[in-house]
Amino acid sequence: MVFIQKTVVCFLQQIKIILAKGAFIMACNKIITIGRQFGSGGREVGQKLAEKLGIPFYDKELLKIAARDSGICEELFENFDEKPTNSFLYTLVMDPYSLGFGTSGELPLNHKVFLAAFDTIKSIAEKDGTCVFVGRCADYALRDYSNVVNAFIYADIDDRIKRIAKKYELTDAKAKDLIRKEDKSRASYYNYYTSKRWGEMKGYDICLNSSQFGIDNCVDMLYDAVTKY
Questions:
Q1: 151 in Cβ contact with 204 (< 8 Å)
Q2: Which positions ≥6 away from 198 have C-beta within 8 Å?
């Protein structure tokens, strides 16, 4: 009898937790987008925040969904992922038809891929209602949504070098060079496709220095921002 009572109590507690979690997600109803400097830990912040909120997380996963929904090869999404591809020579090599050598009115391949990802972000936002997106101009794609919180994670260069050198087994010099290239790539991509400037603080709701606060504190501050305000 005691065992049965304990089992029932445990079951009711689990039901209470599930209902509370569901009510919390409905009450939260926020979509969080996270821009980030390369090596700042922005992806980790986004992933931990999604786990803490109990909501879906989209980073590279977005590319697979966009490829599936659009019918465009996934490899193309990976090739164009947050990379500037607006030069005449690059477009000519990758998609000569876009420059009038084939079907008229065709968009350049990089634009097709961007728009497919753009549509996928909005589709996911409509379907999930609340989730976390990392990068890929998600803040711009969802600029007309009232329930979006846009964050940007940055860090001191020494911490970024240390993180990238460890992750990719690089020397500090090579890690610094990779950081410079990736930041430039992300900025060029973002600035080209949006009406804003990548990393410019006035373009975001919250900007956090992960070197100053640490990854977990950044998660906690974003958590408070989307649940209390």
A1: yes
A2: 35, 186, 187, 189, 190, 191
Q: Is 99 helix (H, G, I), strand (E, B) or coil?
A: helix
What is the dotted CATH code of the domain comprising 31-82+113-228? Answer: 3.40.50.300
User: Which single residue is written with the structure tokens 């919390």?
Assistant: 24
| β-pair type (148-154, 31-36) | parallel
Question: pLDDT digit string (tens) for 8-40?
Answer: 445 445 544 444 444 444 446 899 999 999 999
Sign of the torsion angle spanned by Cα atoms 137, 202, 48, 147: negative
> What's the whole-model pTM score?
0.79
- Tell me the per-residue pLDDT of 141-162, one tens digit each, with 9 for 90 and over: 999 999 999 999 999 999 999 9
**132-166 b/e (C-beta count within 10 Å ≥ 16 → b):** bbbbbbbbbbbeeeeebbbbbbbbeeebbbebbbe
Q: How far is CA 160 from CA 4, 36, 183, in A?
A: 54, 11, 11
CA dist 137 and 189 (Å) reads 9
